[in-house]
Each structure stands twice: as C-alpha cells, then as structure tokens.
Specification:
single chain; mainly alpha; Growth Hormone, Chain: A; about 75% helix; disordered N terminus; sugar transport; transmembrane helix; Sugar transporter, conserved site,Major facilitator superfamily domain,Major facilitator, sugar; transmembrane
C-alpha cells in the first residue's frame, strides 16, 4: 500500500481540513462492498422517480384522448384533429428540451438539472388537471415534451458517472425500468379514478422526486471538471457508503486523471496513462476549470466532431433506428386497431395491458442478466427474436389477406414474445450506452442529441404508419420493419463492442482505437 499526504482544496471551501489519501482498496470486505452498492442503489432510485414521472407522462395522451375524444356536448371535447395535435405536441417538443439540457447541465451540473426538470413536470400535470380548453391541453403536452427531453441527458450522464463499472449497467437498467413502471402506474390511476383526479394525484410524483434528488450528491466527475475537488471527494465518499477518505483515495485519483486526460485532449491527442500503483500527485485546480464554459462555440463544435465523439454517436443512433423498427414503434399509437385487424382472441385493451406487463418482465430479466452476459449478447438475442416476430406477423397478416387463414392465438403469442424481448435488450441498451460510451466533456451534449433524435425518429415512424400501410398493406409494414431488423443484427454483430465491466476511461480508449 502506498501512502501519500496531500491537501484537497477547493476555492469555495478554503477552510475545510486537510485529508490524508491512501491508495488502497477495501472492497474485498463483503460488508463494505454491500454498503458501497447500497449507496449507489439509493442514488439510482432517487433519480429513478424522475424517470417514473416520464413514463407516466408518455401514456397520458392515451388516457386523456380516451376520455375526451368526441365527448358529449357541453364538456371538454377533442375531435380527430385536436386529438392528433395533443398527442403530437409532446413528441415535437422533446427535442427542444434535449437541446436546452445539453447547454444548461454544462454549468448547472446533473443534480441541479434534474431538480429543475421537476418544475415543468409539476406545471404540466396541474394544467392537465385544470384544463378547460384544447389549447390548455396543447400547452400541457408541449411542456411535458420539453420536460421529458430536458431530463434525458442529465439522468443518463449521472448514472454513468456515479456508478462503479461492475454494476453500472445494472443500475442504468433499473433507471430505464422505471419508465415501464410509470406506464403501469398511470394506466392504473386512469382505470381507478376520473381522469382529472388521476392528473391531480400525478402532481405528487415530481414533488417527491424533487425531495429525493435533493438528498443525493452531485456527480463527482462534474465537480472535478469545475475544480471543486473537496466537494468531489465528499460526493464520492457518499456514493461509496459514507466511507473514510482513504477508502476511496485510489478511485478518486483515477477520476482526477480521467478528467485531466479529458482536459488535455482539448489541446493534444496524447492520452494520460493511468497506472495501478503510483504515488498520489495532486492535480492543479486550473486543469479542470477550462473544460466547461471557457471555450468558444467553434472550438466546442470542432471538438464534438472528432472521431472519439462521432464513432459512439453513430453507433447509438443507428442502434436506435434499428430498435425503433423491430419494436414496431410506428404501430404503438394504433395498437388497438392493429390488434383488431389481426383478430386477436382477447380484448385489444386487455392485450395492451398485457404487453406493458411483459415489457416490465423483460426489463427485470435484463437487470438480472446484463452483468452475466453483457450488453452485446442481450442486444443480439433481442434483435434476432424481435426481427423474427416482425417477419412472422407479416406472414400471418399476408395469410389473412390472401388466404383467409385465421388462427387468432398465433398473433397473440407473437406479440407476447415480441414485447417481452423488446425490453430484454434493444429497448434499454441504447440508453445504457449513452451513459458510458461518450467522452466526459461531450457526454451531456451527445446524450441530449441522441435523445432528441430518438424522439424525432419516433414521431416520423408514427406519423407515416398509415401512409406506409396504404402503400404496402399491413403485412408489408411488418416485412419492412423485420428486414430492417436483419440489417440491425448484422450492424450490432460487427460494430457493437462489449463495454460491460469497463471503466469510462477504458471505454473511451476503446472507441478511440476502434476503426
């Protein structure tokens, strides 16, 4: 064990006591290891309440339109055009929130950005509760869209920066699972309560989320980039179970070197080598202060266009495109009509609830297996099965159209398999990748851009479903998206590296070397 005295100073904390740093590792103790994991799980669950709120908002149009579409005279009512606009406002405004987030979180940090997100969420829920005209519903939907887009990047960046490599994917999967839990919760509220009361009850979620997020620390990496090294150490100690300084000294040293390497790379392509056993040398505060906020927009754009950013960006965006195809995202707003056309043997509304439950079950399976199998294997299995399901639905729809063939249990079984395997891999993995594949100084911007394009793709596919169906029939749509899934299998097999268990620095080097 190497011991070295050093001062941890901060320009905002000049009176804080000095700390002695020991380069050591005490994680072999099961109790200490459990305490470290528990602290990270607590931080994850706290921020997951924000994601839960997002899941609830995503299904709001289904509840509101179901109640107000062509409602009785004298009540708030939505015709076909108004219903379409209410559903679309959220998707159209989400990219705006993503772009705002990429700018704000750079100087506010992930924690403050997540706290701020709860304000538009609360306003939107209250507007839905009190709405007396379609225009108020449009405004609430637009505010929800901005809020959803705004929270994507900070939550993804935060989970990637606070977690240890061996549990990072598990924690990120827990976060994404809360979206599906939000679906189930809001549908349950809409089933048990009048829609306005359901909206009012939903107002409590952003309030609770704000309280829980206020109790967790800021990302230690973001604090280091701002030169707040004492606060970064305190944050890391909290996230590792409120342990003494010496128990996180080696990890803190590595984070310093990682942030320093990210700073130095703005000036040179040289990487800083991180060694396992070296004497601790304090990194000057000024090395961090230039990472954010002191470079011109041109320099930031030029830095964003380097290979170390573009390669993971291309990977994530193409992954999202292929996953949208085989998840049948285009069909989602029109699930009930499609189920009717395929003559499923149970109520279409019952099947929508069943598919949500199967997605939740698939997400739980992903949590259990992602550490054992890695993201690459889960992605391939999920993409293969979902592609087969899409092609099978195409064959069945073709048989119905041309041969009057009917075995209603076949599409029911296919849909059950499809929605289970969606959340086993291809739905959560792109968001897991966002939290870890981008370099530190571009992670927030890249995450915001990926989230914005994700929603743009969802809007384009959803808005073209009927046009595509009129052009090539229902079976043609299934075949089209199934064939795209085959291309997705090939792309993932060739281009997706395994990042499970690797540190953020190791992943960054992996993409710098990858051709």
């Amino acid at each position: 064990m190497v011991v070295q005295n050093s001062e941890i100073t901060d320009t905002d904390n000049e009176q804080e006591p000095n700390a002695v740093l020991f380069v050591c590792d005490n994680t072999s103790d099961p109790r200490k290891r459990g305490r470290r994991i528990l602290a990270q799980v607590c931080a994850t669950i706290a921020q997951s309440l924000l994601v839960l709120d997002v899941g609830m908002m995503v299904v709001v149009p289904t509840i509101v339109i179901g109640e107000l579409h062509n409602a009785k005279q004298g009540q708030l009512s939505l015709n076909d055009s108004q219903s379409s606009w209410f559903a679309s406002c959220m998707l159209l405004c989400q990219p705006l929130g993503c772009l705002l987030s990429s700018y704000v979180q750079g100087f506010m940090g992930q924690k403050s950005s997540m706290l701020l997100t709860n304000l538009p969420h609360l306003v939107a829920w209250y507007l839905l509760y009190s709405a007396q005209s379609p225009n108020i519903l449009y405004a609430a939907s637009a505010i929800m869209g901005v809020g959803i887009g705004f929270m994507e990047a900070p939550t993804l960046a935060y989970i990637g920066e606070i977690s240890e490599p061996h549990i990072r994917s598990t924690l990120a999967t827990i976060v994404n699972t809360h979206v599906v839990i939000g679906f189930l919760l809001e549908f349950t509220l809409g089933w048990l309560l009048p829609w306005r009361i359901a909206m009012l009850v939903s107002c409590s979620v952003p309030i609770i989320a704000a309280i829980t997020i206020s109790l967790i620390p800021e990302s230690p990496i973001w604090l280091l980039t701002k030169g707040k090294k004492y606060e970064a150490m305190e944050s890391l100690r909290w996230l590792r179970g409120c342990v003494p300084f010496e128990e996180v000294s080696e990890e803190f040293y590595r984070l310093e070197q990682y942030c320093q390497a990210s700073t130095n790379d703005l000036k040179t392509k040289r990487e800083t080598k991180i060694e396992n056993t070296v004497r601790y040398t304090e990194v000057p505060d000024y090395e961090y202060s230039t990472v954010h906020g002191e470079t011109s927009i041109i320099h930031r754009l030029r830095d964003f266009l380097r290979a170390g950013m573009l390669k993971p960006l291309r990977l994530v965006l193409l992954y999202m495109f292929f996953s949208h195809a085989v998840m049948l995202s285009a069909m989602r707003p029109y699930m009930i009509g499609t189920f009717n056309k395929l003559r499923v043997p149970i109520s279409p509304t019952t099947l929508t609830v069943l598919t949500a439950a199967l997605q939740f079950l698939g997400a739980l399976t992903c949590i259990c297996f992602v550490r054992l199998t890695g993201k690459r294997a889960l992605s391939l299995v999920s993409m293969v099965v979902c592609s087969i399901c899409c092609l099978s639905l195409g064959a069945y729809a073709y048989a119905i159209l041309w041969y009057s063939f009917s075995m209603p249990w076949i599409p029911l079984l296919i849909f059950c398999v499809l929605y289970y395997f969606i959340n086993l891999g291809i739905s959560p993995v792109p968001w897991l990748l966002i939290s870890e594949v981008f370099p530190n100084r571009g992670r927030g911007t890249a995450g915001s851009l990926c989230a914005a394009i994700f929603y743009i793709l969802a809007f384009i596919m959803g808005s073209t479903w009927f046009s595509l169906q009129n052009l090539i029939e229902l079976h043609g749509c299934f075949f089209f998206y199934g064939i795209l899934g085959i291309f997705g299998i090939v792309y993932i097999f060739i281009c997706l590296p395994e990042t499970e268990g690797k540190t953020l620095a190791e992943i960054e080097k992996l993409f710098m070397k990858k051709q």
